[in-house]
Structure to design on (123 residues):
């Protein structure tokens, strides 16, 4: 290990010969295992993305219904107080590698998109 590709493949150097073939096979097996793990992680992310999109669609549907109720009650379309409450809860809920700032940025975009959908449904 620690030698260049040509050396692992049996070229000149300390790892040449039969040992190089075994090293190459070991590297190939390691690469294959890593690629399989990569595919599994990507599959997991794809499943999570699908769930996130479904939840976002549900959130937007609720937002559109709320927008209609607000119009009927002659309430403003947006509430800075409510948005601040949502962002505070999101920051507090952020765990692990997702920082509270990143969670707030994501939800600021979600709020903006929900508001845009409310406006579009009213037109």
């Amino acid at each position: 290990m620690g030698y260049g590709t040509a050396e692992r493949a049996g070229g000149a150097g300390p790892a040449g010969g039969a040992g190089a073939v075994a090293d190459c096979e070991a590297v190939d097996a390691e690469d294959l295992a890593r690629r399989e793990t990569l595919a599994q992680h990507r599959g997991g992310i794809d499943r999570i993305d699908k769930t996130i999109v479904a939840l976002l669609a549900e959130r937007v549907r609720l937002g559109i219904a709320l927008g209609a109720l607000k119009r009927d009650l002659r309430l403003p379309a947006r509430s800075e107080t409510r948005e601040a409450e949502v962002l505070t809860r999101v920051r507090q809920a952020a765990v692990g590698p997702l920082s509270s700032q990143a969670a707030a940025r994501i939800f600021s975009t979600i709020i903006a998109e929900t508001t845009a959908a409310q406006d579009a449904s009213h037109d």
